[in-house]
Amino acid sequence: MNKENIKDLDYFIDLQPKKEDFHGAVLEGLSLPQKTMSPKFFYDERGSKIFDKICDTPEYYVTRTEIALLNDIKKEIYSLVEPGSTVVEYGCGSSVKIKALLSALPGPSHYMAIDISKTHLIATAKEIASNYANISVGAICADFMEPIDWPEKAYAASLKRLAFFPGSTIGNQTPSEAAQFLTNVRHLVGDEGSFLVGVDLKKDFEIFNQAYNDLEGHTADFNLNLLHRMKNELDADIKISDFSHKAFYNEELGRVEMHLVSDTKQAIKIDSLDFSFEKGESIHTECSYKYSKKEFSELAEKSGFSLLKDWSDQKDFFGIYLMRAI
After folding, report:
1. Residues 154, 13: contact at Cβ < 8 Å?
2. Residue 43 backbone dihedrals phi, psi, to 5 degrees
3. Positions of E strands within the chain
């Protein structure tokens, strides 16, 4: 375990895994019967900027609905969370959400940020440290899909630990991956811990189809950016204009799927390899699973949590679940 002293932070622990091999992942994914790319490769610098634009579109309700809901339930959260708790955030996104939570809690004692992006992680942790003088702050650079042990350097006066995972990011995991992640969270927070998580709820399929096919075309740009990465980083011979973005709700599997569909019979050439496409054949780039309250509660219970309280917006688009370790 590599530990570094980062100014303004109580501790910084570097468990960052080896950088993903984009070249190898592309060759492997395009060799599968259903050509596939991991959504983790969406988020290069350009992709991250496009995603910020998606969050501002009228069709993509997730971000603004969750923030509004967090602000609406502040008083209830205050009454349900133990004073002096340690807050552990998985995947540091917009600081707007963690600030809303920290401001709603009764005297939180410590904030621990966990993220795989070292630069983004440190920036977020330092921002919280500068804004909350009464809260000690530490950071762990790690892949949060892997088990993490409670670090010795972390504030340990209170065993009341509250994990926080906003943004419906849990939907990007398969149900089995989500169950394993929940088990890992249960391990980190311990027997007296709690978990506050955002979940995108099942609803009319047209709402999903509109959210992932915004009129301004930002989601299409986000998806097609994978092809731009192949061209720019791998020198792939590829005609990007012959691919189209496709996103739809798969009701049977309870998930939104994103694909890059070949509009013609063609091939992508990388190194000396040709990956042929029939017209209509696709690269599957993302799944985003949606849950009913019952489905998510059962998943959490199997992983060592019981549902304490849940909230949703007036349209039942998005849910926030507070769970306790069992």
Report:
1. no
2. -95, 55
3. 2-4, 11-14, 86-90, 110-115, 136-141, 161-165, 194-200, 243-250, 255-262, 266-270, 273-277, 282-289, 305-312, 318-325
CB-count burial class (<10 Å; 0-12, 13-18, 19+) for 46: middle
User: If you average pLDDT over residues 13-30, what whole number do you get?
Assistant: 91
Dist. CA 289–CA 173, nearest whole Å: 7
Q: How far apart are CA 158 and CA 106, in angstroms?
A: 13
**∠ CA(248), CA(169), CA(314), 5° rounding?**
75
Angle (nearest 5°) at CA 130 between 128 and 136: 65
- What are the residue ranges spanned by the domains of the chain? 31-58+208-289, 85-203+291-325
In tens, the pLDDT along 204-254 reads 999 999 999 999 999 999 999 999 999 999 999 999 999 999 999 999 999
Gap between the Cα atoms of 145 and 132, Å rounded: 28
Nearest partner of 270 among 35, 6, 11, 17, judged by Cα: 35
Cα(9)–Cα(280) distance, integer angstroms: 51
Looking at residue 1, its pLDDT comes to: 45
Which ranges of 81-117 would DSSP assign to H, the alpha helix?
A: 95-104
What is the pLDDT averaged over residues 92-121? 88
Pairing of strands 86-90, 161-165: parallel
What kind and span of H or E run contains 307? strand 305-312
Taking alpha carbons only, the member of 177, 114, 118, 178 closest to residue 148 is: 114
At the top level of CATH, the class of 85-203+291-325 is: alpha beta
Instruction: Decide which of 51 and 7 is more confident.
Output: 51
pLDDT at 4 > cutoff 60: no
Q: What is the DSSP letter of 240?
A: G
Longest dimension (CA), the chain: 63
* Closest to 39 in 3D by CA, of 270, 257, 296: 257
